[in-house]
# Entry
Amino acid sequence: MSHIVTVQDAVTAFADFMEPTAAQLDAIEQEMPVILADVELLDAQIITMDRTPTELDARRIRRARRRALAARVALVNRAAGASLPGGAA
# Structure
């Protein structure tokens, strides 16, 4: 019978190498508006799962979809603007 302690030592021995790099954290921070907009859209959709959506629910979902799309467009535009030479957007 092997003990969990030996497995834990093997798993946690490389824990320092498993941390996200600064570049990965920056990428997450850049995508955070998209992530938050998607969470808001999911929240709006989850609310209506167990009932018939009201007009207010439909408006909330439409608004959340627009925000999610706008956040994605802004992210793509930032990425495209950063890759253009000469700072032209």
Summary: Residues 5 and 11 are 10 Å apart (CA to CA). The helical segments are 4-12, 22-47, 55-83. The chain has three helices and no strands.
